[in-house]
Every structure is written in C-alpha cells, then in structure tokens.
C-alpha cells in the first residue's frame, strides 16, 4: 500500500475525471488515446508485464513436463515383456504425467486469463505472482502424492490447500488491480462497468477454492466424492460450455453473450494471448529437447578407474556401449526440433489464438512431452528384440499424435480464419498448401514408419534411424516437392474449373477458388 | 536454394537497383524507410527471427546450468568432513560446471552477434540454426568427457569437432544471409561495404574453427598445447581487447575504431541484444528454480509398500523425513525468485545492454546456477553439525556473489548511463536510490547471515530459515524503508548543499545534485 505516492493518486483522480467527462462513448480512436495515455502516465513503479509473464511461462512449462521423468526413468527388466510392464506403467505413471500436465496447463490458462485483465504490474504484483508460481510448481508433487496414496487424505489435503492458496492469491491480485485501475486492461479501464467486471472475475476465480474447500471437507467424510469434486473443478468450464453449446444448437441461437463477458467467458473462441501460447510451447519444446542430454551428461561419463580396469584405458571402447544413447539423443533432439519448427511455422501464420487452439496445442505438447519416454525406451532394449520393436512403434504413435494435434490447431484456425489467420495462408491462399504439407509431414512419416516396422520386424531399428536422418532433409526439400506436386496436379486437371467437391464443405463464404492456388 | 522463387529474385534485384541509385547516403529517414521497405517486401517465407532466438535462448540457458546436476548429486558421506570432500568437489566438478557455463555462454554470445547481423530468417536458416543448437547442447558432454579424461585425445577430438562444425554452420548462415540481403540488418542492407562486412564477419567466425583444427593436430603430437589453444580461443577477444585498451591508455587515444566495426568489434560497449540477455537470464532463473522440485518429484514420493511396512501406513510420519527437502525447495525457490525479481527491476531501467554488462550478468548467473548445489548441501547434513554450518555459509557466499555481480551490472550501466539507462534512474534520479537499495539487499543480507552464523554456530539453520522467510517481506517494505531513510537523511543534512565528496568521482558531467534525490 505504501507504493503509491501522492502524485500517483492525483494522476489517478485526473484519469477518473476524464473518464466521467468524455470517455464513456467507445470509439476506436478514443480507445487508442486512452491506451497511450495510460502508457504515458509514467508511474515509474508501474511496469509492462511482458517479462514477468515470459518467466512464468518458462517456469510453468518446465513443471508441466517434469512428471515425464519418473515415467522415463522407470527401470524395465530386459527379459520382461514390454506389454506387461507397459500396462503397469500406463495405469499409474503415464496417467499421473498426463493429469499433471492437464492440471498445470489449467493453472497456466487461469494465469493467462488473469494477466489479460491486469496488463501492467508493479513490484507488489510481481512478488504476489512469484508466490503464486511457487505454489504452482509444487502442484505436481502434491498430485503425485495423491496418486501414490489415493486413500490417504493427506494428498488431497495438500493438493487442495495449494489450489486454495493459489486461488486466494489470484483474488488478491484482482482486488489489488481493480484498486489501481491504471494497471488494468485498457478496455476495462475506460469501462463504466468496472464493478461488474470485478465481481464477475472474482466469482469465477473464487469458485475453484470453494470447490476445493468442499473437497477437503468431504475427504474426511467420504473421500471418493472429493475426487469427483476435483474432476468437476478441472472440467467445469468445458462441461458448462458444451452444455450451453448443445442447448444453443437444440433451441437455436438464444442469448448472444454480452460484450462485457469478453474476459473469463470460457467460450472456445475466447482470445488467449498468442505470445504466451508461444512462450509456453517454446519452454516445453526446449525442456523436452534437453531432457535426454541432462541424463547423458550425468550418467554417461564413464568412471576413469573403471575404464582403466575394464577396457585397458581405451575410452572409445568404453563409450561404444553408450552408442544407442547418443543416437537416441540426436534422434530425439531432431524430432523435437523439427516439431518446434512446424509449430513455429504454424504460429507465424496465426494472428490471434483462440481458447480451442490453445487446448489443441496443450494436447500436442502433452504428446511432445512423452518423447523422452519414447526415446528412453528405444535405446533401452537389446537390438532386434520384440521390446525394441514395440518401443519404436510407441515412438511412432507419440510422434503421430503430436503432429496430428498440430494439424488440428491449423484446422481449428481455418474454421475462424478471418479472425485467426494471415490473409495469405487462408484456405486457397498462396502458402496454404505448403503449410499443410509441413504439418502433414510428421504424421505421415510416423504412420508410414509404424506400418513399415510392423512389416519388417527385423530391420525396425535401422528403418527408424534412417527416418530420423531423413526427415530434416525432407523439410528442406518440401517446398520443391510441393511445387512439383502442384505443377503435376495443374497438368492433370488443366485450366478448367475444379468441381465444388474439392472445396471444404464447412466453409461456405466466397473465397479464392482452388485453381488460384495452382497458379 | 529452391526456396527463392522468381518474384523474390526480381524484388531482390529491384532492391539492389534502389540501393545503387539513392540509398548510398546515410540519413536517418532513409534508414527508417529502408527498414520499413524491407519489412514490407512481403516474402512470405521471410520471418522475424524473434521466436527462433527465444527458443535458442531457452535451450542454451538450460544447457548452461545443466552441469550443476552432477555436482549437486554428488553423494557426500555424513561422517566425512565437508572441507575434505569439498576440495575434491572444487577441483573437478565445480570447475567443470564453471568452465561449461563459460563455454556455453561464449557460444551464446557468438549466436547473439550472428543474429544481430542477420535479423530476418527463412526456413533454411531456421533449420541450420536448429542443427547449430543440437551441437551446442552436446558441448557440455564433450567437455565433461575432456575433464574426466584429460590425457585422452578423444575428448579434445569430440569437443573440437563440435566447435568446428558449429563454426562452419555459422559461416554458412553468414554466406547465406549475405546472398539474400533482405535478411540482413538494415544498416548493413543499405551499406555499400557489404563485401567488407562479410569478409570481416567470416574472418572472426572462422578464426575459432581454425584454432580448434590446430588444437586437434596438436592433440596427437603434444596434447597440453591443445588445451592452451582452446583457452586462447575462449579468451582471445578479452585478451586482445584488454591489450588494445592498455595500449590506448598508454599511448593515448589513437585509432577510433571505424563505424564499420560496429558488429563483431568485441569492444566492452558493443551492443548486446537486451531482449536476448533477458530471455537467457529468465531461462537460467527458471531452470534453477525448478531443479530442486525435479528431484523432489522424482525421489521424494515414498513407496506405498514401504510406508505400510515401516510407518504402519502413516503417510505424515513417512513424509516428516523429507521435511528439510521441502524447506530447502521453498527457500531455494524464494531466493531464486527474488534474485530474478531484482534482475527484472534492474533491466526495466536499462535501455541498452553492452557487452560488459552481458559479461557481468553471466558471472551473476553462474553463481545463481550454483544455488541448487548450495541448497542440496544445506539439507543433506544432520542438524547442528559442522557440515551443515559450512553448507549454510557456502550458500551465503553464493548468494552474496550472485547479488554483487547484479550490483556490478548496475555500476557498469552507470558508467555509460546516457546510453544505457532510462533518464529517471540515472545517478541522482528519482528511482536511483530505490534501485540501489533493491540491489544491495541480497548481498547485505547474505553477508550479515554469514557473520551471524559464524557467531551463533548452534542456531545457524534456524537463522538461515528465518532469513529465507524474512527477505520477501523486506522487499515489500523496502520502498517504505528507503523513503524513511531518505527523510532521516534529509533531516540530518538539512536543505544545505551536499559537499561534492558525495558525488561519484568518475562522473564529471553536470547532473541532478544529490539533494534533488532527497526531495
């Protein structure tokens, strides 16, 4: 509270006066004026939140992918059939990984939503946010405790306490932000409904701690009910939205949600800061790409004494045993790097991210996070064993889904392309085909590798490594290939108009015909 | 090469024509025009390099801090004196960590320098950069191999091969960039000395692979010489610059380096992208803050069977043994978070980062990277043992240096404040004192804790934990304390002019007097 000196309070009052006089009407140029005036206010203690959010994204992305480590480091005995041990893995650790990823990304989405309302920060908010981050990074541990001891109330208690405290800190941030309107989003800053916004946002935020509090109470009485409650907390927005959507489709377009609900509306087309989606994805890709080298740096430097004893001081011989690890590292890095490259290309063409796209991105990232597990598996088994074959097939499945969900982001963007895409990549645009080819490359390659390894069970490892080497080259040649393909198509089809069947059925507004893409 | 279609080549020629006609003179408005014209060129395959660089920063920051893991995970026996085992640690693993950190940051600085020249990218450059990243992330492993087997040529061979390939990829990027001038920095794009730039940059870049090649050759003849060569590679710019500086001071201001040497000049005031310094620092702080929770998530979930057997199913009792780990985690997170907060506040006031500031930042980050080691040590020893006391003192020393180097960044910025700082924090400015107080807080607290633990050897752990809890509160109260302190100072000194002794001696240009700061 001691952060505001008198001059700031005066400026703030002046601002309110201005609002009362002339800012009630919402014209675009007034909007911009207000934006720049609030930028110009020059509170030296008020800061752009950009870097705080980037740091938060980095922290949350590391935490989201961390729970793959206990899965990847699970020791599987060579003689055990992978399928059996996999079942054991699948039921517990992978489920824990996926649920933790989901929970952390839910917390992250709430964080984005909060800082779309509060656009500027000061020292106090920065410290509150760090406290919030500390608790979010502790969530995976409490959750894995809950998963390991499902019948013990302690896990639920710790998890719910964390969630409650996070919710309360967010509520404090909202109250603090609304008490200093120059910190708020410009649109809310000039709105006359500030009180309404504040109540609406607080209601949404405090719903989660309330549910958790009830879950704590039930954990002492009848604990299965608290799990149901926790599941409701996570899926509540989705459930309520799909119910609303179904009702809307059944009864017909009833209530167009008012403009005041732009924030915290939980609709699929609610905007989600593109910058933060990118930063979070970068964090996940970066940590996944380096997880294997972390292990290699720690475990695969042989002990000098042992090298002397077992290999007569011949280091090359000693390192040969680690060969598969290095190959797995380069393969994993190349795959993650290229998936990042596709993601990067995709988001270059995106203007605005919607909530649905963010959700699909989360699914894609959850599979990307599974890659260290896949590569850990591929080098863990003796060559040409049945386990190795299955490990390679699992890798293909993971890569396939990571790629397919990227493709799904693209499709989701196309549904609302006027809002979300740059003009030149809209359906039938110049770069549309090329982008599609880039997105389709990994799913196709993964699928093809999967079937080839099924057929040639003996050479599976060789096929897999060849594919790893080949994909970067494929990306380099892709533009050429697409051009060749289009030229071929043009020759086959001729300059005649393309039958309407070639158009996507869900898009009915007039647009560039397919042939324009070919020329 | 197949990425450029005909229209792009034509545009490119048009650009060259324009350059020949009117762009030779270097007026600022032409500058801006050229900048926007190259933005407007609309190569859909040409992209802003922003996200590529952010991703590279994330990868490099993770890799730089990774080598602290082998140090932190070194098992020290409780009965062993910390000092003895520390000596063993210090001589090998910590040295490896610091050297790896240095090497990786050198590679990172080279990367910054390269992408300050090449400001826009296309798919080909993105893929080349990913290849470069893959090799940079492999450097720590090759280096630790070199450290473990100093007399074996294989380590040197692998390390040098990596560095050579990185250098060659960078050279290819430069050649590729100069063959497509719309990718270049605007200043170079309109310069008539493009050929000169290209040669100068290639010369600087290829010097490193050349040195490494010679080092490889010597590793077969007389290996100590190859280590000397590698050291020269890393410190060459510093050595040559300090020699130049000494000569300049001795003989007098001789040759003002020409403007053409703005890039790759290796002068201490050479600009270093502030955005990237921030992104790299964020990455280091984020990975350091989460390293402990990674361990906790993996190791500290007790086995259900064991809990049943040893603690009769009482989870709380089973977890009590992990108490120190949790305390260490929260303490470590709070310390790293607050050091990040200070760094964030500092860089809010910085307009432009110089090479010297980047170097000091690297030193600060190297100590921050040591924090997981310090906290690992504090919870590893039995309470009130001599080892615990020493571990706490080591923590204090690490925090102290991390803070002091942050302070040094501030001092370095003040030396060239017109270039580097925002007006309101320049020496004597309104927020100058507050910033100074923020920067001084951690070094002071660390120093005070160090001496208190020396005096009260029995309560050292308690003191340390109290300090951990107290520091966030201190940051919240800091503004109030600074204001109180200034008011006190004002009352003591009165409105009289302050004697010139209070001014910093190295700053001789007229500026706001000290009393202005007090009002």
Rg of chain A (C-alpha, Å): 27 Å
Overall 3D geometry of chain A?
A: globular
Unreliable sequence segments of chain A? 1-43, 256-260, 497-519
| CA(first)-CA(last) distance of chain A | 64 Å
Order of helices and strands of chain A: HHEHHHEHHHHHEHHHHEHHHHHH
* Strand proportion of chain A: under 5%
Q: What fraction, in percent, of the residue positions of chain A are helical?
A: over 70%
What do these coordinates show?
Two copies of one chain form a homodimer. The termini of chain A are far apart. Chain A is mostly helical and 519 residues long. Helices cover 75% and strands 2% of the residues of chain A. A two-stranded antiparallel ribbon of chain A has the order 1-2. Chain A has a two-stranded antiparallel sheet with strand order 3-4. The radius of gyration of chain A is 27 Å and the shape is globular. Chains A and B meet through helix 3, helix 6, helix 11, helix 13 and helix 14 of A and helix 3, helix 6, helix 11, helix 13 and helix 14 of B.
